């Protein structure tokens, strides 16, 4: 069994080093053992999921270590060994070297190993008298052999063993399994209920995958091709594993004990009522928490304190802050990078930014804030989920709930964390359904979940609570707690069911209601914006589409002056988008002063409203669903200021002095509904974004009827008047029912793909990569704009960074890119910064300060222009 290689240099040269298969197997097993020893909570999760008593702890650990040792048993196959012919020919007998051996595709070493073990080795461990135990353990075999991102499909491998393994291969493989069982395994293999084995199999697959990644690192486990007794090598591997696990940064640091709000935020001397309430509550075991408070009420800080308390109580060991967009994740990462070390009593905690372009933000925060993340983690986005504190898009976490490659690794990274979902209300039916599935899966893995929102409907709360209870096995208790109309509100569900909700006082610095002023046309809205700006106020106009935003910005620039109008939306390339974002946060952020804010106009889409801490004197919003209107309204008079717009001290007594406190809503008249085009006649583009005209009509009606958004008592009635009612005028009824049917269809599209904790880590559904498993409905294509200078040379879109031209476009409009003809070297250079984005060449228009290009849409080339102000526009 010592005549097989397990790891080797990729160059294939005869003199290149290699690592014996038995040694690599023991490296990975030693890492798994070290992880289990250093993270006792991980063993506790397995014991709970399996329903085993604490007395079975040692048996469980030794079983996992043994199974991890045989994770690469499929590499004993000649089909695998011949991939390094110079090594294979050194060990294999002549009669085997002259025969062809199959390998590749479904005959990868993972499925081959699972099929070989399934063939009879597993059953032999039980001498045929415990078939149920053998079946349960087979589920775990699939998990350890599926360490390359997906569960092994052994149907073809089972039929092809003779074409992949020689009799010598099988005998040597069985000899190693026997040695590993005797030397590393328990005195007796545990008898696992099949259902429990399935529930735990994805966690095991994640553990083995992480152990395999660490155990394959040559810096920690140098190659060795000189055979020594496996017992002697095992001791070497265990010593190396201790250092490797330390350097990899996967073991959580010790948390602070008894954290208070003042410990986490010493700079905030006057916590909000919500923050003070959380400070006085106990969070010491797995739970689901709903935190409902208006914008500016300190929800993020409250969620961080909940996470800190759960960590201090041993119920969690880190947190993942899930944001709706890349931009909001970057903004939140800036905030968290300043304080994340306060969660821990030890130095060295890892902080990771997780999204498609997180590497750039990660490097920036390391430079500006000194945040640290182990180098091993930064090499692969999927590894970052094991960092103690993660800030990323919700998509990276939701992939754990889908059959996407390495979903098990994502689940392993999330299982010990508090999963905090910001803006929990802001997702469509499809993504909401995946979120429900993720809550169920994480609850089954022992994770706590905190859902943060200004506006969460009772129906959504109930769906999420039911999913958490199903996953964790907790009783719901008194469901009336989910119908509590008080606001702001903290609702906790733990092992005893729902606690009595805790209502808090409204945020001290924003007690004033916002009056609602309705205008009936875009032209009227323009007048409102211009009049306010000319009076020295700063104004935000929230539009529902990029084209609407750009159209309004052009007119306002002509009328008001170019310098004081900014446009911000998702079709800006990354370079200009990040510059614009930084400019907006400086000019309109929390500490901005009246003189710099005066007369500024920002026209934006919803991307600006999702967790950006900006504060305008007046906000104008095109009609959209009421929760989004309230989100927009929260960007007006957000922080207490004097009448000149200068910030007031947040001491509990500051009252915003700006007048008037109002939000202007551009809406057709809800009393005049004559046709199905009630909304689309005013907003033809936005009607594609918000097709449920009945919901929009209820929004317009309740805003007009109430005449104000009263904080906090008016928040819940607004939400329920729209989402808890089905009142719809007759002309809008057919279209609204059709839209509701489409939303139900969206949810149904998500359900078949959701991971079922009870189904386990088996290839019963199709597994794919991240791109094939979308977390949002409506596939997008990522492109990188590259300047074509017409001389055979290309340049980044903006500055010297290729990623400055990155952006995402909806595949409803774009189906592909035009061939670019660039050399491989150039393509690799671009990919090193822009990732997997499709390259799109653009050329400078000789008569305008814009760049021109084209993208594929079906069988046509659709032309576009792009610049740093308006972004990409179709022509």
UniProtKB/TrEMBL annotation:
<keyword id="KW-0540">Nuclease</keyword>
<comment type="similarity">
    <text>In the central section; belongs to the CRISPR-associated helicase Cas3 family.</text>
</comment>
<dbReference type="GO" id="GO:0005524">
    <property type="term" value="F:ATP binding"/>
</dbReference>
<dbReference type="InterPro" id="IPR054712">
    <property type="entry name" value="Cas3-like_dom"/>
</dbReference>
<dbReference type="Pfam" id="PF00270">
    <property type="entry name" value="DEAD"/>
</dbReference>
<dbReference type="InterPro" id="IPR006474">
    <property type="entry name" value="Helicase_Cas3_CRISPR-ass_core"/>
</dbReference>
<dbReference type="InterPro" id="IPR038257">
    <property type="entry name" value="CRISPR-assoc_Cas3_HD_sf"/>
</dbReference>
<keyword id="KW-0051">Antiviral defense</keyword>
<keyword id="KW-0479">Metal-binding</keyword>
<dbReference type="Pfam" id="PF18019">
    <property type="entry name" value="Cas3_HD"/>
</dbReference>
<dbReference type="InterPro" id="IPR006483">
    <property type="entry name" value="CRISPR-assoc_Cas3_HD"/>
</dbReference>
<keyword id="KW-0347">Helicase</keyword>
<dbReference type="GO" id="GO:0051607">
    <property type="term" value="P:defense response to virus"/>
</dbReference>
<keyword id="KW-0067">ATP-binding</keyword>
<keyword id="KW-0547">Nucleotide-binding</keyword>
<dbReference type="GO" id="GO:0003676">
    <property type="term" value="F:nucleic acid binding"/>
</dbReference>
<protein>
    <submittedName>
        <fullName>CRISPR-associated helicase Cas3</fullName>
    </submittedName>
</protein>
<dbReference type="GO" id="GO:0004518">
    <property type="term" value="F:nuclease activity"/>
</dbReference>
<dbReference type="InterPro" id="IPR027417">
    <property type="entry name" value="P-loop_NTPase"/>
</dbReference>
<keyword id="KW-0378">Hydrolase</keyword>
<feature type="region of interest" description="Disordered">
    <location>
        <begin position="727"/>
        <end position="767"/>
    </location>
</feature>
<feature type="domain" description="HD Cas3-type">
    <location>
        <begin position="14"/>
        <end position="214"/>
    </location>
</feature>
<dbReference type="InterPro" id="IPR011545">
    <property type="entry name" value="DEAD/DEAH_box_helicase_dom"/>
</dbReference>
<dbReference type="Pfam" id="PF22590">
    <property type="entry name" value="Cas3-like_C_2"/>
</dbReference>
<keyword id="KW-0614">Plasmid</keyword>
<dbReference type="GO" id="GO:0046872">
    <property type="term" value="F:metal ion binding"/>
</dbReference>
<dbReference type="GO" id="GO:0016787">
    <property type="term" value="F:hydrolase activity"/>
</dbReference>
<dbReference type="GO" id="GO:0004386">
    <property type="term" value="F:helicase activity"/>
</dbReference>
<comment type="similarity">
    <text>In the N-terminal section; belongs to the CRISPR-associated nuclease Cas3-HD family.</text>
</comment>
């Amino acid at each position: 069994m010592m005549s097989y290689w397990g790891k080797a240099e990729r160059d294939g040269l005869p003199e290149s080093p290699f690592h014996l298969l038995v040694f690599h197997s023991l490296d990975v097993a030693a890492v798994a053992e070290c992880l289990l020893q250093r993270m006792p909570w991980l063993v506790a999760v397995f014991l709970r999921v399996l329903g085993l008593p604490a007395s079975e702890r040692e048996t469980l650990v030794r079983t996992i270590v043994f199974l991890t040792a045989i994770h690469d048993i499929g590499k004993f196959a000649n089909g695998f060994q011949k991939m390094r012919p110079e090594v294979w020919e050194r060990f294999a007998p002549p009669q085997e070297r002259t025969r062809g051996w199959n390998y590749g595709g479904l005959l990868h070493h993972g499925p081959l190993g699972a099929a070989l073990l399934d063939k009879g080795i597993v059953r032999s461990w039980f001498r045929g008298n415990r078939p149920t135990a053998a079946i349960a353990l087979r589920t775990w075999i699939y998990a350890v052999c599926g360490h390359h991102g997906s569960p092994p499909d052994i149907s073809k491998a089972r039929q092809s063993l003779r074409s992949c393994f020689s009799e010598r291969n099988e005998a040597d493989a069985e000899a190693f399994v026997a040695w590993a069982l005797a030397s590393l395994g328990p005195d007796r293999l545990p008898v696992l209920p099949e259902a429990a084995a399935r529930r735990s199999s994805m966690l095991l697959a994640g553990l083995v995958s992480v152990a395999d990644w660490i155990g394959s690192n040559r810096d920690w486990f140098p190659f060795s091709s000189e055979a020594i007794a496996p017992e002697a090598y095992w001791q070497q591997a265990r010593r190396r594993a201790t250092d490797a696990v330390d350097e990899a940064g996967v073991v959580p640091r010790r948390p602070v004990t008894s954290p208070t709000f003042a410990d986490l935020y010493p700079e905030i001397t006057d916590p909000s009522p919500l923050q003070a309430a959380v400070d006085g509550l106990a969070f010491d075991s797995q739970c689901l928490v709903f935190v409902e408070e208006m914008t500016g009420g300190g929800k993020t800080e409250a969620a961080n304190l909940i996470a800190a308390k759960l960590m201090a109580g041993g119920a969690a060991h880190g947190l993942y802050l899930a944001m709706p967009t890349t931009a909001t994740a970057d903004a939140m990462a800036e905030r968290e990078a300043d304080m994340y070390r306060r969660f821990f009593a030890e130095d060295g905690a890892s902080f990771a930014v997780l999204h498609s372009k997180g590497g750039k933000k990660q490097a920036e925060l390391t430079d500006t804030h000194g945040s640290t993340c182990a180098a091993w983690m930064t090499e692969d986005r999927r590894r970052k989920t094991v960092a103690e504190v993660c800030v990323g898009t919700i998509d990276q976490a939701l992939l754990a709930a889908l059959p996407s490659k390495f979903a098990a690794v994502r689940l392993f990274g999330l299982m010990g964390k508090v999963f905090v979902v910001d803006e929990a209300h802001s997702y469509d039916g499809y993504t909401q359904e995946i979120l429900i599935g993720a809550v169920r899966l994480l609850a089954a893995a022992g994770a706590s979940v905190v859902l943060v929102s200004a506006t969460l409907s009772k129906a959504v709360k109930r769906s999420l609570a039911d999913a958490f209870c199903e996953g964790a096995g907790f009783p719901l208790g008194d469901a009336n707690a989910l119908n509590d109309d008080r606001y702001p509100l903290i609702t906790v569900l733990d092992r005893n069911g729902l606690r009595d909700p805790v209502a808090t006082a409204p945020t001290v610095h924003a007690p004033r209601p916002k009056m609602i002023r309705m205008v009936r046309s875009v032209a009227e809205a323009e007048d409102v914006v211009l009049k306010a700006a000319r009076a020295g106020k700063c104004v935000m106009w929230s539009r529902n589409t990029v084209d609407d935003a750009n159209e309004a910005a052009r007119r306002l620039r002509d009328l008001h002056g170019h310098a004081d109008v900014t446009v911000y939306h998702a079709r800006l390339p990354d370079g200009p988008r990040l510059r614009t974002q930084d400019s907006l946060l400086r000019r309109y952020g929390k500490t901005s002063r009246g003189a710099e804010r005066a007369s500024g106009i920002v026209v934006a889409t919803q991307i600006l409203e999702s967790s950006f801490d900006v504060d305008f004197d007046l906000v104008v919003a095109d009609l959209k669903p009421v929760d989004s209107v309230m989100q927009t309204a929260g960007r007006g008079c957000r922080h207490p200021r004097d009448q000149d717009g200068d910030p007031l001290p947040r001491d509990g007594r500051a009252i915003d002095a700006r007048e008037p406190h109002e939000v202007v809503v551009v809406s057709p008249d809800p009393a005049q509904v004559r046709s199905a085009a009630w909304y689309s006649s005013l907003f033809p583009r936005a009607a594609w974004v918000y097709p449920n005209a009945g919901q929009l009509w209820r929004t317009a009606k309740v805003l007009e009827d109430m005449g104000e958004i009263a904080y906090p008592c008016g928040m819940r009635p607004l939400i329920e008047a729209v989402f808890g009612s089905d009142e719809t005028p007759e002309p809008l009824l057919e279209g609204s029912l059709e839209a509701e049917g489409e939303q139900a269809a969206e949810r149904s599209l998500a359900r078949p793909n959701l991971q079922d904790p009870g189904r386990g880590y088996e290839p019963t559904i199709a597994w794919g990569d991240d791109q094939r498993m979308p977390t949002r409905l409506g596939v997008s294509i990522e492109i990188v704009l590259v300047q074509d200078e017409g001389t055979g040379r290309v340049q980044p879109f903006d500055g010297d960074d290729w990623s400055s031209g990155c952006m995402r476009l909806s595949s409803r409009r774009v189906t592909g890119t035009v061939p670019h003809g660039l050399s491989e070297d150039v393509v690799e250079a671009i990919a090193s910064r822009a990732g997997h984005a499709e390259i799109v060449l653009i050329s400078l228009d000789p008569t305008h300060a814009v760049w021109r290009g084209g993208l594929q849409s079906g069988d046509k080339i659709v032309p576009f222009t792009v610049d740093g102000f308006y972004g990409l526009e179709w022509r």
